[in-house]
Design goal:
This protein is about 60% helix and about 0% strand.
């Protein structure tokens, strides 16, 4: 998920956790968390539009910087889901290929559709696209989501560059790490080595390296790793602990903001500080939300779930809508808090409509095609099919969720299905 300001989201953003053909369970709390993150990133960019076009009018103010945490939250959610949906797929290179193909079909089609619209504008009026970098754009790198020194054509795509990096590393882990009860320690160890490598690379000055190395060593990666670590703990967490973990995460985030010797803006622009403040709290909130799902619905959950369902398309279009709205606001309306509220409310509604259309007409069909191709191209051999044959089991820790386990192993932890980039 990304931002035109150099900070960004998911997902990540992110896209829906839904009921798959396999019957694995939908986790509404996780989907609602995505919806909350999508609203936060909208809040951040609305604040920036307010600053740019509002001529001093203040509706959101500096509090909008808190919306930056949406990026970290989406990355933590992404890490959590990658572990949750691949527990029985390790030790098989075919599964790594299948994983990457499904991820590619999840990220690229919707991203390409919106990027194509931006490209049309760029060809007609280059100065209207990424004006902060003089209209300079690497079109090929943008469409392929390759690391680059500039923002992509669709500026929010910078976070998707990070997502692809996460997926490539995780696919390598799927291919290389053996599966089985005796090897369960390998994934936590690999995640720990990955986190240590990021910290060491930062200490050695990787922030000044080539774009690909900067992505690989970006402290934002620690959010993904923290989320993955949270998924490893999930089977041991009783649902009653879910709300407490969410509260602990929020309290830890607030404490971090209070003790860090930096302003709110500096925290989110300085990647090491950002990781220190956000990674663990976002992982705790994600773990708590997922663990609490069997406790049932809570007030307003359905609205957040609905936004979470379309959060990826919402993320892709929201900054474009806000940018056009800001120009119209500057040209047609007086810069008041009331006009800003009306503008942002209408913009949010339009983003929802566009996101719903993108989800129905692009995301869902292309995801189905991707899964069908992945099954066809990476069908397991007979021996692999025996190794990975699922056997349904019950799991009292995660009542209400479906679980899959190898026939020759102890019961596996509960599983989440997801078609999201984050």
């Amino acid at each position: 998920m990304g931002m035109g300001t150099g900070m960004g989201m998911s997902t990540p953003a992110a896209a829906p956790v839904g009921r798959a053909a396999s019957g694995l369970a939908r986790n509404d709390n996780l989907q609602a968390l995505r919806g909350i993150a999508a609203a936060l990133v909208f809040l951040l960019h609305a604040m920036l539009i307010e600053q740019k076009y509002g001529q001093g009018a203040v509706l959101i103010g500096r509090a909008g910087w808190l919306g930056s945490v949406a990026v970290d939250l989406f990355f933590a959610i992404s890490g959590f889901i990658m572990v949750a949906i691949t527990r029985d797929r390790f030790g098989a290179p075919r599964e790594a290929g299948r994983f990457l193909l499904e991820r590619a079909f999840r990220i690229y089609p919707a991203y390409w559709c919106v990027s194509a619209a931006v490209l049309a504008v760029y060809l007609l009026k280059p100065g209207m696209v990424n004006a902060s970098q003089g209209g300079q754009v690497d079109v090929v790198a943008s469409f392929l989501l390759l690391p680059q020194a500039m923002l992509p054509l669709l500026s929010v795509g910078w976070t998707l560059v990070h997502e692809l990096y996460f997926y490539v590393v995780f696919a390598a882990l799927i291919a290389l790490l053996p599966r089985g009860a005796g090897h369960r320690w390998l994934l936590p160890a690999a995640l720990g080595v990955w986190a240590a490598a990021v910290v060491v690379a930062q200490a050695l000055g990787a922030a000044q390296a080539a774009p690909a190395w900067r992505v690989a060593a970006d402290p934002l990666t620690l959010n993904f790793i923290a989320g993955a670590g949270a998924a490893l703990l999930w089977p041991q967490v009783h649902p009653a602990w879910g709300p407490r973990l969410v509260g602990m995460g929020l309290a830890l985030f607030a404490l971090g903001l209070a003790v860090v010797p930096a302003t709110l803006e500096q925290v989110f622009f300085d990647r090491p500080w950002r990781a220190a403040v956000c990674a663990l709290p976002c992982a705790l909130v994600t773990l708590g939300a997922v663990a609490a799902n069997p406790r049932g619905a809570w007030p307003g959950q359905r609205l957040w779930v609905a936004l979470g369902d379309v959060s990826y398309s919402f993320y892709l279009v929201h900054l474009l809508v806000l940018s056009v709205a800001g120009k119209l606001w500057s040209a047609l309306l007086p810069p008041t808090a009331a006009s800003a509220a009306a503008l942002f409310g209408l913009s949010f509604a339009l983003c929802l409509l566009l996101a719903r259309a993108g989800w129905l007409w692009v995301e869902r069909p292309t995801q189905r095609w991707g899964k069908a191709l992945a099954r066809r191209w990476f069908a397991p051999a007979a021996r692999d099919a025996l190794v990975h044959r699922p056997a349904p089991v019950s799991n009292p820790v995660a009542a209400g969720t479906a679980v899959a386990a190898a026939a020759t192993e102890a019961p596996a932890p509960p599983t989440i299905t997801s078609a999201s980039p984050s």
